[in-house]
Amino acid sequence: QVQLVESGGGLVQAGGSLTLSCAASGRPFSNYAMGWFRQAPGKEREFVAGLSSSGTIRNVADSVKGRFTITRDNAKNTVYLHMNSLKAEDTAVYYCARRTGVEYDSWGQGTQVTVSS
């Protein structure tokens, strides 16, 4: 059983930056691809970014491309989401998730990011 704990959310002004962290416990972290998702009020959860187990293959949603970067530190069992040039529309609860096969099957509790305009 894996546990994922996000941190680093908060209130930031538009144009600012935040880095979210997701610490994993349980099965070997380095065996799994990881991802970040977000859910804004009244909207469905959407994919933000994903990273392979080795950290060499990443994909990022078009809505955040060029502004957000996903990285991982397998020695620390942690995946990060570096967010720059934040916009009001980035306001959401951000979740990290572990991918098993083709599905994301384990989720954290989420961390709130609020961008003021």
Characterization of the model:
This protein has 117 residues and is mainly β. Helix content is 0%, strand content 56%. It has no helices and 11 strands. It has strands spanning 3-7, 10-13, 18-25, 33-39, 46-51, 58-60, 68-73, 78-83, 92-100, 103-107, 111-116. The strands form 2 sheets. Strands 2, 4, 5, 6, 9, 10 and 11 form a 7-stranded mixed sheet that branches. Strands 1-3-8-7 form a 4-stranded antiparallel sheet, with no helix packed on it. The chain is globular. The termini are far apart. The model has no long low-confidence stretch (mean pLDDT 96).
Assign an overall shape.
Answer: globular
Structural class: mainly beta
Strand content: over 45%
Radius of gyration (Å): 13 Å
Overall pLDDT metric: 96
Main sheet summary: 7 strands, mixed
Q: Helix and strand string, N-terminal first?
A: EEEEEEEEEEE
Helix content: under 10%
Characteristic key phrases:
11 strands; single chain; mainly beta; seven-stranded mixed beta sheet; 117 residues; globular; four-stranded antiparallel beta sheet; 0% helix
